[in-house]
Amino acid sequence: MHADDETRILPSQADDGVVRRLRAAGCVFAEDEARLLRAQADGDLLDALVTRRVAGEPLEHVLGWAELAGVRVVVAPGVFVPRRRTTLMVEEATRLARAATAPRPVVVDLCCGTGAVGLVVALRTGDVELHAVDVDPAAVRCAQDNLARVGGRARTGDLTAGLPHELRGRVDVVVANVPYVPTDEVRLLPPESRLHEPVTAVDGGPDGLGLVRRVLSEAASWLARPGHVLVEVAAHQVPDAEQAARAADLVPRTVRDDDLDAVVLVASAR
Ligand SMILES: C[S@@+](CC[C@H](N)C(=O)[O-])C[C@H]1O[C@@H](n2cnc3c(N)ncnc32)[C@H](O)[C@@H]1O
Protein backbone atom coordinates (compact mmCIF):
# COMPACT_ATOMS: atom_id res chain seq x y z
CA MET A 1 0.00 0.00 0.00
CA HIS A 2 1.23 3.47 -0.91
CA ALA A 3 1.75 5.89 2.00
CA ASP A 4 -0.86 8.26 0.52
CA ASP A 5 -3.45 5.50 0.56
CA GLU A 6 -2.75 4.94 4.21
CA THR A 7 -3.37 8.59 5.11
CA ARG A 8 -6.56 8.53 3.07
CA ILE A 9 -7.88 5.60 5.04
CA LEU A 10 -7.06 6.85 8.51
CA PRO A 11 -9.69 9.60 8.88
CA SER A 12 -12.59 7.31 7.98
CA GLN A 13 -11.36 4.69 10.47
CA ALA A 14 -11.15 7.36 13.14
CA ASP A 15 -14.64 8.48 12.11
CA ASP A 16 -16.27 5.15 12.72
CA GLY A 17 -17.17 5.75 16.34
CA VAL A 18 -18.52 9.17 15.50
CA VAL A 19 -20.55 7.88 12.55
CA ARG A 20 -21.94 5.06 14.68
CA ARG A 21 -23.06 7.44 17.44
CA LEU A 22 -24.64 9.84 14.95
CA ARG A 23 -26.41 7.05 13.08
CA ALA A 24 -27.73 5.54 16.30
CA ALA A 25 -29.16 8.95 17.18
CA GLY A 26 -31.07 9.01 13.89
CA CYS A 27 -28.84 11.37 11.86
CA VAL A 28 -29.63 10.45 8.25
CA PHE A 29 -26.43 11.98 6.86
CA ALA A 30 -24.19 10.58 9.60
CA GLU A 31 -21.07 10.31 7.36
CA ASP A 32 -21.38 13.89 6.13
CA GLU A 33 -22.02 15.21 9.62
CA ALA A 34 -19.07 13.26 11.01
CA ARG A 35 -16.81 14.78 8.35
CA LEU A 36 -17.96 18.31 9.24
CA LEU A 37 -17.59 17.73 12.97
CA ARG A 38 -14.12 16.24 12.55
CA ALA A 39 -13.08 19.24 10.49
CA GLN A 40 -14.14 21.40 13.44
CA ALA A 41 -12.46 19.60 16.33
CA ASP A 42 -10.77 16.48 17.58
CA GLY A 43 -10.23 14.66 20.86
CA ASP A 44 -12.38 15.73 23.80
CA LEU A 45 -13.77 18.72 21.97
CA LEU A 46 -14.99 16.52 19.10
CA ASP A 47 -16.55 14.18 21.65
CA ALA A 48 -18.38 17.12 23.25
CA LEU A 49 -19.68 18.29 19.86
CA VAL A 50 -20.91 14.80 18.98
CA THR A 51 -22.62 14.54 22.37
CA ARG A 52 -24.51 17.79 21.71
CA ARG A 53 -25.56 16.62 18.23
CA VAL A 54 -26.65 13.23 19.54
CA ALA A 55 -28.77 15.04 22.16
CA GLY A 56 -30.67 16.70 19.30
CA GLU A 57 -29.07 20.12 18.81
CA PRO A 58 -29.16 21.31 15.20
CA LEU A 59 -25.90 20.53 13.41
CA GLU A 60 -25.44 24.22 12.58
CA HIS A 61 -25.61 25.22 16.26
CA VAL A 62 -23.06 22.55 17.13
CA LEU A 63 -20.72 23.62 14.33
CA GLY A 64 -21.29 27.33 15.00
CA TRP A 65 -21.94 28.07 11.34
CA ALA A 66 -24.57 27.61 8.65
CA GLU A 67 -24.68 28.19 4.90
CA LEU A 68 -27.13 30.15 2.79
CA ALA A 69 -26.66 30.10 -0.99
CA GLY A 70 -23.08 28.91 -0.52
CA VAL A 71 -22.15 31.66 1.96
CA ARG A 72 -21.08 30.63 5.44
CA VAL A 73 -22.44 32.59 8.41
CA VAL A 74 -21.88 32.40 12.15
CA VAL A 75 -24.90 31.01 14.01
CA ALA A 76 -24.99 30.83 17.80
CA PRO A 77 -27.12 28.39 19.82
CA GLY A 78 -30.68 29.70 20.09
CA VAL A 79 -30.52 31.71 16.86
CA PHE A 80 -32.67 30.77 13.84
CA VAL A 81 -30.75 28.65 11.32
CA PRO A 82 -31.14 30.03 7.75
CA ARG A 83 -33.15 27.66 5.53
CA ARG A 84 -32.30 26.60 1.99
CA ARG A 85 -35.70 27.74 0.70
CA THR A 86 -34.75 31.33 1.53
CA THR A 87 -32.34 31.20 -1.43
CA LEU A 88 -35.35 32.26 -3.53
CA MET A 89 -35.69 35.51 -1.58
CA VAL A 90 -31.95 36.12 -1.96
CA GLU A 91 -32.11 35.64 -5.74
CA GLU A 92 -35.12 37.89 -6.24
CA ALA A 93 -33.76 40.59 -3.89
CA THR A 94 -30.40 40.54 -5.67
CA ARG A 95 -32.08 41.11 -9.04
CA LEU A 96 -33.99 44.07 -7.63
CA ALA A 97 -30.97 45.54 -5.82
CA ARG A 98 -28.87 45.31 -9.01
CA ALA A 99 -31.67 47.11 -10.91
CA ALA A 100 -31.82 49.97 -8.37
CA THR A 101 -31.01 53.38 -9.78
CA ALA A 102 -29.10 54.58 -6.71
CA PRO A 103 -25.30 54.35 -7.14
CA ARG A 104 -25.15 52.59 -3.79
CA PRO A 105 -28.47 50.78 -3.26
CA VAL A 106 -29.87 50.67 0.29
CA VAL A 107 -30.86 47.20 1.45
CA VAL A 108 -32.66 46.57 4.74
CA ASP A 109 -32.93 43.11 6.33
CA LEU A 110 -35.80 43.10 8.86
CA CYS A 111 -36.06 40.10 11.21
CA CYS A 112 -32.47 39.44 10.13
CA GLY A 113 -31.56 36.54 12.45
CA THR A 114 -27.94 35.80 11.54
CA GLY A 115 -28.12 38.47 8.83
CA ALA A 116 -27.58 35.80 6.17
CA VAL A 117 -30.18 37.10 3.70
CA GLY A 118 -28.89 40.67 3.62
CA LEU A 119 -25.29 39.46 3.59
CA VAL A 120 -25.73 37.27 0.52
CA VAL A 121 -27.67 40.00 -1.30
CA ALA A 122 -24.86 42.46 -0.51
CA LEU A 123 -22.12 40.04 -1.62
CA ARG A 124 -23.92 39.33 -4.89
CA THR A 125 -24.91 42.92 -5.64
CA GLY A 126 -21.63 44.65 -4.92
CA ASP A 127 -21.52 47.99 -3.15
CA VAL A 128 -24.71 48.32 -1.06
CA GLU A 129 -25.57 50.14 2.17
CA LEU A 130 -26.89 47.35 4.37
CA HIS A 131 -28.91 47.73 7.58
CA ALA A 132 -30.28 44.80 9.57
CA VAL A 133 -32.68 44.63 12.53
CA ASP A 134 -33.77 41.86 14.87
CA VAL A 135 -35.61 41.88 18.18
CA ASP A 136 -33.34 39.18 19.63
CA PRO A 137 -29.97 40.45 20.94
CA ALA A 138 -28.34 37.01 20.38
CA ALA A 139 -29.33 37.15 16.70
CA VAL A 140 -28.07 40.73 16.42
CA ARG A 141 -24.66 39.70 17.81
CA CYS A 142 -24.40 37.03 15.07
CA ALA A 143 -25.54 39.51 12.43
CA GLN A 144 -22.96 42.06 13.59
CA ASP A 145 -20.23 39.43 13.12
CA ASN A 146 -21.58 38.30 9.77
CA LEU A 147 -22.20 41.74 8.27
CA ALA A 148 -18.79 43.17 9.17
CA ARG A 149 -17.35 41.77 5.93
CA VAL A 150 -19.67 43.98 3.83
CA GLY A 151 -19.66 46.99 6.18
CA GLY A 152 -23.31 46.35 7.17
CA ARG A 153 -24.88 47.49 10.47
CA ALA A 154 -27.08 45.27 12.65
CA ARG A 155 -29.25 46.76 15.40
CA THR A 156 -31.66 45.47 18.02
CA GLY A 157 -35.23 46.65 17.51
CA ASP A 158 -38.84 45.96 16.67
CA LEU A 159 -39.06 45.94 12.84
CA THR A 160 -38.60 49.45 11.38
CA ALA A 161 -38.32 51.01 14.85
CA GLY A 162 -34.75 49.70 14.74
CA LEU A 163 -33.82 51.69 11.64
CA PRO A 164 -32.09 55.09 11.59
CA HIS A 165 -34.56 57.85 10.58
CA GLU A 166 -32.42 59.11 7.72
CA LEU A 167 -33.24 55.96 5.75
CA ARG A 168 -36.92 56.91 5.42
CA GLY A 169 -37.84 57.11 1.72
CA ARG A 170 -34.38 55.84 0.65
CA VAL A 171 -34.64 52.05 0.91
CA ASP A 172 -34.42 50.21 -2.42
CA VAL A 173 -35.00 46.68 -1.14
CA VAL A 174 -36.38 45.34 2.15
CA VAL A 175 -35.85 41.62 2.73
CA ALA A 176 -37.93 40.28 5.59
CA ASN A 177 -37.98 36.59 6.28
CA VAL A 178 -40.31 37.04 9.25
CA PRO A 179 -41.91 34.31 11.39
CA TYR A 180 -44.94 33.03 9.42
CA VAL A 181 -45.97 29.74 11.04
CA PRO A 182 -49.53 29.94 12.44
CA THR A 183 -49.44 29.64 16.25
CA ASP A 184 -51.41 26.36 16.22
CA GLU A 185 -48.86 24.77 13.87
CA VAL A 186 -45.71 25.63 15.84
CA ARG A 187 -46.10 22.39 17.82
CA LEU A 188 -45.86 20.46 14.51
CA LEU A 189 -42.39 21.78 13.67
CA PRO A 190 -39.47 19.32 13.87
CA PRO A 191 -37.93 19.09 17.35
CA GLU A 192 -34.68 20.70 16.14
CA SER A 193 -36.66 23.88 15.51
CA ARG A 194 -39.20 23.59 18.35
CA LEU A 195 -36.59 22.92 21.03
CA HIS A 196 -33.62 24.93 19.78
CA GLU A 197 -34.99 28.01 18.02
CA PRO A 198 -36.92 30.67 19.94
CA VAL A 199 -40.69 30.65 19.39
CA THR A 200 -40.42 34.35 18.46
CA ALA A 201 -38.43 33.24 15.39
CA VAL A 202 -41.22 31.07 13.97
CA ASP A 203 -44.62 32.04 15.44
CA GLY A 204 -46.47 34.40 13.10
CA GLY A 205 -49.68 34.66 15.17
CA PRO A 206 -53.13 33.12 14.59
CA ASP A 207 -52.95 32.94 10.76
CA GLY A 208 -49.15 33.26 10.55
CA LEU A 209 -49.34 36.67 8.86
CA GLY A 210 -49.19 39.03 11.85
CA LEU A 211 -45.58 40.08 11.20
CA VAL A 212 -46.03 40.00 7.41
CA ARG A 213 -48.85 42.57 7.70
CA ARG A 214 -46.81 44.75 10.04
CA VAL A 215 -43.74 44.65 7.78
CA LEU A 216 -45.76 45.56 4.69
CA SER A 217 -47.57 48.45 6.34
CA GLU A 218 -44.46 49.79 8.15
CA ALA A 219 -41.97 49.34 5.33
CA ALA A 220 -44.03 51.17 2.69
CA SER A 221 -42.99 54.61 3.97
CA TRP A 222 -39.29 53.67 4.05
CA LEU A 223 -39.16 52.71 0.37
CA ALA A 224 -37.49 54.68 -2.41
CA ARG A 225 -39.32 54.86 -5.77
CA PRO A 226 -38.92 52.25 -7.16
CA GLY A 227 -38.62 50.21 -3.99
CA HIS A 228 -39.60 46.70 -2.98
CA VAL A 229 -40.43 44.63 0.12
CA LEU A 230 -39.89 40.86 -0.03
CA VAL A 231 -41.47 38.46 2.45
CA GLU A 232 -41.43 34.66 2.46
CA VAL A 233 -44.83 33.01 2.99
CA ALA A 234 -46.47 29.60 2.66
CA ALA A 235 -48.37 28.94 -0.58
CA HIS A 236 -51.78 28.97 1.13
CA GLN A 237 -51.03 32.40 2.66
CA VAL A 238 -50.53 34.13 -0.72
CA PRO A 239 -54.06 35.58 -1.18
CA ASP A 240 -54.10 37.14 2.31
CA ALA A 241 -50.50 38.37 2.00
CA GLU A 242 -51.28 39.99 -1.36
CA GLN A 243 -54.31 41.64 0.21
CA ALA A 244 -52.09 42.98 3.02
CA ALA A 245 -49.72 44.44 0.40
CA ARG A 246 -52.58 46.19 -1.40
CA ALA A 247 -53.84 47.53 1.95
CA ALA A 248 -50.39 49.09 2.41
CA ASP A 249 -50.73 50.70 -1.05
CA LEU A 250 -48.08 48.36 -2.50
CA VAL A 251 -48.35 46.33 -5.71
CA PRO A 252 -47.95 42.59 -5.04
CA ARG A 253 -46.59 39.80 -7.18
CA THR A 254 -45.57 36.31 -6.17
CA VAL A 255 -42.45 34.32 -7.05
CA ARG A 256 -42.33 30.55 -6.53
CA ASP A 257 -39.76 27.78 -6.68
CA ASP A 258 -41.23 24.30 -6.30
CA ASP A 259 -37.82 22.63 -5.94
CA LEU A 260 -37.02 24.87 -2.98
CA ASP A 261 -40.63 24.69 -1.74
CA ALA A 262 -40.45 28.46 -1.53
CA VAL A 263 -42.89 31.30 -2.11
CA VAL A 264 -41.87 34.96 -1.91
CA LEU A 265 -44.24 37.90 -2.06
CA VAL A 266 -42.68 40.97 -3.69
CA ALA A 267 -44.58 44.14 -2.81
CA SER A 268 -43.49 47.20 -4.78
CA ALA A 269 -44.07 50.90 -4.20
CA ARG A 270 -46.28 52.60 -6.81
C1 LIG B 1 -37.75 33.08 10.59
S1 LIG B 1 -36.46 33.89 11.45
C2 LIG B 1 -35.55 34.48 10.04
C3 LIG B 1 -34.17 34.93 10.30
C4 LIG B 1 -33.40 35.32 9.02
N1 LIG B 1 -34.08 36.36 8.30
C5 LIG B 1 -33.21 34.12 8.13
O1 LIG B 1 -33.87 33.97 7.11
O2 LIG B 1 -32.35 33.28 8.48
C6 LIG B 1 -37.30 35.31 12.06
C7 LIG B 1 -36.49 36.30 12.88
O3 LIG B 1 -37.38 37.38 13.21
C8 LIG B 1 -37.02 37.90 14.48
N2 LIG B 1 -38.17 38.70 14.96
C9 LIG B 1 -39.36 38.24 15.43
N3 LIG B 1 -40.16 39.28 15.74
C10 LIG B 1 -39.48 40.43 15.44
C11 LIG B 1 -39.78 41.82 15.53
N4 LIG B 1 -40.96 42.26 15.98
N5 LIG B 1 -38.83 42.71 15.15
C12 LIG B 1 -37.62 42.27 14.70
N6 LIG B 1 -37.28 40.96 14.60
C13 LIG B 1 -38.20 40.04 14.96
C14 LIG B 1 -36.67 36.67 15.27
O4 LIG B 1 -35.87 37.00 16.39
C15 LIG B 1 -35.94 35.82 14.20
O5 LIG B 1 -34.55 36.05 14.24
Automatic annotation (TrEMBL):
A single BP term in Gene Ontology: methylation
Coiled coil: none
Keyword Transferase: yes
Enzyme Commission (EC) number: 2.1.1.297
InterPro entries according to UniProt: HemK-like, MeTrfrase_put, N5-glutamine_MTase, SAM-dependent_MTases_sf, Small_mtfrase_dom
Keywords tagged on the record: Methyltransferase, S-adenosyl-L-methionine, Transferase
Catalytic activity: L-glutaminyl-[peptide chain release factor] + S-adenosyl-L-methionine = N(5)-methyl-L-glutaminyl-[peptide chain release factor] + S-adenosyl-L-homocysteine + H(+)
A GO molecular function held by the record: peptide chain release factor N(5)-glutamine methyltransferase activity
UniProt-listed Pfam families: MTS
SUPFAM superfamilies registered for this protein in UniProt: S-adenosyl-L-methionine-dependent methyltransferases
Residue intervals of the Methyltransferase small domain: 103-181
Taxonomic superkingdom: Bacteria
Annotated Gene3D superfamilies: Vaccinia Virus protein VP39
Top enzyme class: transferase
Keyword Methyltransferase: yes
Matches recorded under PANTHER family: HEMK METHYLTRANSFERASE, MTRF1L RELEASE FACTOR GLUTAMINE METHYLTRANSFERASE
Protein's UniProt name: peptide chain release factor N(5)-glutamine methyltransferase
